[in-house]
Amino acid sequence: MKALVILGSRNPKGQTARAAEAFLRGVTDGGGECEQFFLPQMRIERCRQCEDNGWGICRTEGRCVIEDDFASLVDKIRSADAAIFATPVYFSDLSESMRAFLDRLRRTCMNQSGKAGIAGKKAIGICIAGGGGGGASVVGVTATLIDEPQFGQNLALGSFSGAPQCVQYCRDNLPPLRILN
Ligand SMILES: Cc1cc2nc3c(=O)[nH]c(=O)nc-3n(C[C@H](O)[C@H](O)[C@H](O)COP(=O)(O)O)c2cc1C
Predict the structure, then answer these.
(1) Fewest CB within a 10 Å sphere: which of 79, 101, 152, 162?
(2) Whose C-alpha lies nearest to ligand 1, atom 6?
(3) DSSP alpha helices (H): ranges in the chain?
(4) pTM
(5) How far apart are CA 50 and CA 160, in angstroms?
(6) Least confident piece of the model among 19-28, 107-116, 147-156
(7) Whether 157 contacts 121, CB under 8 Å
(8) Mean pLDDT, the chain, whole residue set
(9) For residue 123, what pLDDT is reported?
(10) Ligand 1 centroid, distance to 57 Cα (angstroms)
């Protein structure tokens, strides 16, 4: 099992990183491999909405014109068995870096060639709320996409918000997660 962890927090010692770390430990303890990326440390621009009609070659070619770290990270998802998206809750929503990445992923995956290796990928969403916890229940991976609207089974490309199945971790005593297969 090769798992890719994509984090929308910039804090390597924060709650999001700790939750991801718990997941990562479970995978490596089970003999799997994990690689993790902190989106705020990468060059991931926001979508440019290239054409007047709001579309771009994302729609026709399944790729993005922007030459930054987006394409290489998408390739990492393609070659992983599972992708984990871990984001802090900001303003009852995804963090800005996670939003920017997923906005562009959603667009490229509107096209058949962009979908290749992404649709149907096992995926898990982790979101971490602080403060009053407002928004945690609405920030999660929605599995609106492609085949099966089943959280944790297929990568969601529709939107990240609105899923009641969001995985939340508390601040303390995070147990390591175990990957069963
Ligand atoms: C800009 C900003 C907005 C936030 N908005 C919310 C919010 O709407 N609801 C909430 O419960 N926590 C909110 N928080 C708290 C974070 O979700 C919480 O501190 C989280 O642990 C941060 O993740 P980190 O430890 O990985 O940095 C916000 C924090 C920041 C910095």
Answers:
(1) 79
(2) 90
(3) 15-29, 57-61, 70-79, 96-108, 112-115
(4) 0.80
(5) 23
(6) 147-156
(7) no
(8) 76
(9) 82
(10) 34
In short, whether 132's Cβ falls inside 6 Å of ligand 1 is yes
CA of 4 from ligand 1 middle (Å) equals 23
The model's confidence at residue 122, banded by pLDDT at 50, 70 and 90, is confident
CATH number of this structure's domain 2-168? 3.40.50.360
Q: Is 90 in the pocket of ligand 1 (CB under 6 A)?
A: yes
Query: Would the CB of 89 count as within 6 Å of ligand 1?
Result: yes
Nearest-5° Cα angle at 114, 108 to 60: 65
Q: Is 130 in the pocket of ligand 1 (CB under 6 A)?
A: yes
Looking at residue 175, its amino acid is P
Ligand 1 centre and the CA of 90: distance in Å? 5
Residue 139 near residue 168, CB atoms below 8 Å: no
Could you tell me the distance, in angstroms and rounded to a whole number, from the CA of residue 106 to the centre of ligand 1? 24
Q: Where are the domains of the chain?
A: 2-168
Report the SS3 class of residue 58: helix
